[in-house]
Amino acid sequence: MNTAAVQYTQLIKHKALALGFDFCGIARAEFLEDEAPRLETWLKNGMHGQMNYMANHFDKRLDPRLLVDDAKSVVTLLLNYYPEQQLPEDDDAYKLSKYAYGTDYHFVIKDKLKDLLAFIQTEIGEVGGRAFVDSAPVMDKAWAKRAGLGWVGKHTNLINREIGSYFFIGELILDLDLEPDGPIADYCGTCTRCIDACPTDAIVAPYVVDGSKCISYFTIELKEALPDDVRGKFNNWVFGCDICQDVCPWNRFARPHQTPEFTPHPDLTTFSRKDWEEITDEVFREVFRRSAVKRTKLEGLKRNVRFVGESPEL
After folding, report:
1. Which of 10, 138, 261, 264 can pair with 268 through a Cys bridge, CB separation 3.0 to 4.6 Å?
2. Distance between CA atoms of 283 and 274, rounded to whole angstroms?
3. Is residue 237 within 8 Å of residue 308, measured between CB atoms?
4. What's the rounded Cα separation, in Å, for the pair 77 and 24?
5. What family is it from (predicted)?
C-alpha cells in the first residue's frame, strides 16, 4: 500500500467535507470500458435529441487522461441540494426542478472545487489538475459510481444510500496517485416506481433514459416549439422535472441541504400560477438573476408556461 497515497487521500477527503461537500470518493483515472458501448448505442439511437454536444468529444468522455495530462485519479464530490421547503405549496401552481431553486450550481461547486484544488497544491506540492462541473465531457455519474458514492438507478440518476439522489456531482481530475474506493452494489431491486411514474415514458427500459422524451429536455434543452404529442403530460413542470426522483423510495433519506446559496429567492416562494403566466423581463432578471433557469431565457420559460397551461384539447 502506498503510504503517501493513503495520507493524501485522507487529507483531501477531510478538506472536502470542511468545504461543505457531503461525500468524496476516489477512482483511478482510466478508460471507462463498460460505459463506451452504452454511450455509443445511446447516441446512435438518437436519445440525446438536439443535445448535439453529447456527441462531441466521444474519446474524452471515456478517458480522463485526454483531459488532464498524466491523470492518475478522479476525485468525485457530492453536494446535497434537497430543499427544506418544497415549491410551490399550491398544487395547482407551476413547478421547477429543485436543483434550480437557488444559485446556479455551476458557480457554487466550481468555487468549492477551486478551493479544494488550491488546498491540494498548497499542502501536497506540484499537483496538476482540473475542476469539472457538468460543463465538460466528463461522465460524472460513472465516476461517482466507480468511487463508491452510490449506484446508477433505473432512472439513470446516481443514488446514495444515505441521502438519496438530490445532489450535484463535481470532479477534480489529478495527476496524483490516491487510494481508490471501490464501487458498491445496486440496491434498486425489483422496484420500478420511476419507470411507472414517468408521464412521457422517457425511461424506455431499466437504466435507459431516452433523453429526447424527458420533460427536462423539453423544458430546458429543446429550443423549438414543443411537440403536440406531449401536451398535457408535463404535470405543471415548466423547468426540469423531479418526478422520477420524487417517487424513488431512497429519497425518504433525503435531508435539507446546508448550502445558503441554494436557498430560493424570497419572491419565488410565493409565486402563484398567475405570477408565472404574467412574468416580466424585470421580474425574470431579479428572481432568476443567478439561477440555472436563465438557461431557458425569458422567452423559453414563457413558452413552457403557455404550453403547460393549455389543455390537451387545445
Report:
1. 264
2. 13
3. yes
4. 5
5. Belongs to the QueG family.
User: How many domains does the chain fold into?
Assistant: 1
Residue 98 contacts residue 80 (beta carbons within 8 Å) = no
Q: Report the distance separating Cα 273 and Cα 267, nearest Å.
A: 13
Which residues define the annotated binding site? Answer: 61, 134, 158, 169, 188, 191, 194, 198, 214, 216, 223, 241-242, 244, 248
Residue 54, helix vs strand vs coil: helix
Residue 136 DSSP label:
S
CA distance 280 to 258: 31
Sign of the alpha-carbon torsion through 243, 160, 265, 110: negative
- Is 59 considered catalytic here? no
List the Cα angle 220/50/232 in 5-degree steps: 50
d(CA 179, CA 155): 30
Give the whole-angstrom CA distance, residue 274 versus residue 256: 28
Task: Compute and round to an integer the Cα radius of gyration of the chain.
Answer: 20
Instruction: Tell me the pLDDT tens digit for each residue of 153-205.
Output: 999 999 999 999 999 999 999 999 999 999 999 999 999 999 999 999 999 99
- Provide the phi-psi class of 83: left if phi over 0, else alpha when psi is between -120 and 50, else beta: beta
The active-site residue out of 134, 175, 177, 181 is 134
The annotation places the binding site for tRNA at 223
Q: Is the peptide bond before 88 cis (omega within 30 degrees of 0)?
A: yes
| Amino acid making up residue 235 | N
Per the annotation, binding residues for cob(II)alamin are 61, 134, 158, 169, 216, 241-242
Instruction: Return the C-alpha cell found at 231.
Output: 401536451
Q: In sequence order, what are the beta bridge partners of 131?
A: 172
What pTM does this model have?
0.93
> Can you tell me which residue has the cell 422520477?
244
Question: What domain range is 40 assigned to?
Answer: 1-314
The pLDDT tens digits of the residues spanning 227-271 come to: 999 999 999 999 999 999 999 999 999 999 999 999 999 999 888
